[in-house]
Amino acid sequence: MITAQVSIFAFYAARVILYLLFVVSFFTLAFFVERLLYYRRTLVRDGDRLQTELFAAPDRARMLTVLRAEKGEEARMIAESFGEGIVGPDAFRELVTARLIAARQRWERYTDFLGTVGSNAPFVGLLGTVLGIMKSFADLAVATKGGPQAVMSGISEALIATAVGLGVAIPAIIFFNICKGRIRRSSALVEALQARVSAAISGTGKEK
After folding, report:
1. Would residue 208 count as lying in a domain?
2. Which of 58, 92, 132, 135 would staple 10 via disulfide (CB 3.0–4.6 Å)?
3. Could you tell me the pTM of the whole model?
């Protein structure tokens, strides 16, 4: 009696896990596409060009013009901090840091989900496989015919959950790394722009 209950439980639990993995894969792809569109819409596309123009600017007024002409969020946070009339470079850096912390919260949205899926989807798939194997052996215990062939058929079916788990995890890890790489580049760009403007404020740039 207990064996039959185990078989029924394992059957439905394995199916639920498969459906869960498929749902998670949909959200993984949806969140990644949303992040790509967000980065394309809000972040600087050509950071090298912006740095070249800013480093070539002869004075503060020209630097501010270059920053305000750029639509990306990295340039905007530097321009907003630069345009607040702060005299000292330390205060300017603190303003930029505060804005960068807030910006990173927006940039990293959904990335924790992608990382969690990439780390845990294989284990969820493995759980589905274990449940499928439990069902196969429970069925064997009450079966009057079929023998090892029935067990092997059930095990091969159970391994599908592991394959699906890996199929969900691998793209999630790739998506996570792409998003993190984009965030690192934007953060590095902010630091480079901040260093150039700080030099101009402190009087070590080309001109004050």
Report:
1. no
2. 135
3. 0.83
